[in-house]
């Protein structure tokens, strides 16, 4: 059933989260992509590789403090990453999702993990955060930033949310470099990705850094995870064949759009037009 209210991103996740969990790349309760980074030997490890990168940096910050960090997941999905961090680090956590269905699923996951006394999920747009959200020492967005309707609005909100000296992480897709704009083939596939996955903020890394600096964030670290993505499963070839045969059809179905955009994303990555980056900034002060 396709949702009819809310923003395009809200409808996209209200409609597709259940299918993403059932038909995605793993069974670990996360809707992020598998990343076969250094030291990864199993699919379970690949599915939580980015989560582990985030958790490690949260643990470093927490180790330097006596009081619990407030960690905010901007686009928390069903709460898997936040629960993973909180299970081993004494943080307080808030997950923000534009999808009410995701918030309900995250709330159930948090309760089942016994973390409801220090972790919660709230409904809201990270480009217009809910009122009363406490300041954060650490905030992150995993495969969520591209759905921001405005990259500047995202960083304006982060500038108000993150404390001086705090850390912001974005792990997402970026345009590889300025040459992509002059390639008609690249633009065709990137436009398909934008349409299929309701993408509002797809930038070159240098553009993102410039916006971050305008809002008081200096880049601290970048890890290029592009080459560790999994793109050649039998399912991927089957979807590619389906899109070559029928992708031109004007089917107005949310799951069809997800497949259409996902295939375009893989093509753009394979041809080097997009990069999948783990990027870290520190708030001035």
Could you outline the blueprint of secondary structure elements for this entry?
Blueprint lengths: L7 H16 L19 H5 L1 H15 L6 E5 L5 H9 L3 E6 L2 H13 L6 E5 L12 E7 L8 H11 E14 L8 H13 L8 H10 L2 E8 L9 H13 L7 H17 L3 E10 L2
Parallel strand pairs: 1-2, 1-4, 2-3, 4-5
Antiparallel strand pairs: 5-7, 6-7
Helix pairs in contact: 7-10
Notes on the structure:
With 285 residues, the chain is an alpha/beta fold. Helix content is 43%, strand content 19%. It is built from ten helices and seven strands. Strands 3-2-1-4-5-7-6 form a seven-stranded mixed sheet, sandwiched between helices. It is globular, with a radius of gyration of 18 Å. It starts with 7 loop residues before the first helix and ends with a strand.
Output the keywords:
Rossmann fold, single chain, alpha/beta, 285 residues, 10 helices
Side-by-side strand order of the widest sheet:
3-2-1-4-5-7-6
Low-pLDDT regions: 1-5
Q: What do the pLDDT scores average to?
A: 88
User: What is the C-alpha radius of gyration, as a whole number of Å?
Assistant: 18 Å
Number of helices: 10
Q: State the helical fraction.
A: 40-55%
By CATH, the architecture is named: 3-Layer(aba) Sandwich
Taken from the alpha-carbon principal axes, the silhouette is globular
Strand content: 15-25%
Compute the separation of the termini in Å: 48 Å
CATH topology: Rossmann fold
Give helix and strand order, one letter per element, not per position: HHHEHEHEEHEHHEHHE
Largest sheet: 7 strands, mixed
Top-tier CATH class: Alpha Beta
